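Recall from the previous lesson that a structure prediction takes nothing but the amino acid sequence as input. Here we apply that procedure to Type II pantothenate kinase from Paenibacillus chartarius. The sequence below is the only information supplied.
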Amino acid sequence: LRIGIDAGGTLTKIAIMNDHLAPAEALKFLKFPSSEIERTVAWLAAEANGAVLAFTGGKAGMLRALAEREAVATASGVDVLAVPEFEATCTGARWLLQRQGRSMERFLLTNVGTGTSIHYVTQDGHERVGGTGVGGGTIIGLSALLGWRDGSYEDLVTAALDGDRSRVDLKVSHIYAGVTPPIPGDLTASNFGNVRRQSEPVGIEDALASVVGLVGETVTTVSVHAARERGTADIIYIGSTFLGNKLLADIVYRYTRLRGGEPYVLPDGEYSGAVGALLAL
Ligand code: ATP
Ligand code: MG
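The prediction returns the following tokens.
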């Protein structure tokens, strides 16, 4: 059993490879909130016997120390490997792409996690080319500031899907009303720039939809520029922020294409780091 653990700022993702099973059934995924670290340790204590473990992510050191204190690692009597986060993420994404039959010689990889990290991945290497603090944590934090108090991420994403951005965001076509704009009218001229023009208050769902819009358009814009700089059009998007978040995926697809890029939101992409970690074993 090979287990890769990516302990991120928000979620701890686990990939479990049972090399004795057929390829279609060999790989399983699991996740825990990183804030509930003891749940991950308890799972490891119960399930990781005889396994080899590889840790990655910003909270890997803390998790590993706790797991070792609980004698998880020593109980399984194995080597425990630490894999650098960007290395694990890029390797795992390349592997998951291949599994989808989408192998690419080179591509841009945008990981929309708590924050957003952008990498240029080639067949023999990878390089971090940028990032932005606008990411999944922004969706949660800004929504809370705007008055959203409900529980789960799924609830938030569902509410955003019911929202209407047109009363919140200002499009280029709003400014160039009645005349042909020099850039596509569908581009956002100003995120939240339409709020003060409304006579009626903006509903929370509308605000949430625009928060997702802000994050989607920001990560897309930064990615398209980085891709252009590297001379590639292919942009692969990963990260738990896309989980159940059709609105974000739609925005990212539409906006990347509008700007000349070729987008793909990778299925199971949020497990790239965990997969990359276990592949190092
Ligand atoms: P980083 O890589 O920046 O350290 P991370 O690896 O924890 O962070 P991801 O797991 O890729 O990041 O994504 C975290 C984001 O996913 C959250 O900010 C939130 O927007 C979204 N998300 C999806 N599902 C959940 C969930 N069940 N609980 C909390 N956030 C969730
Ligand atoms: Mg991460």
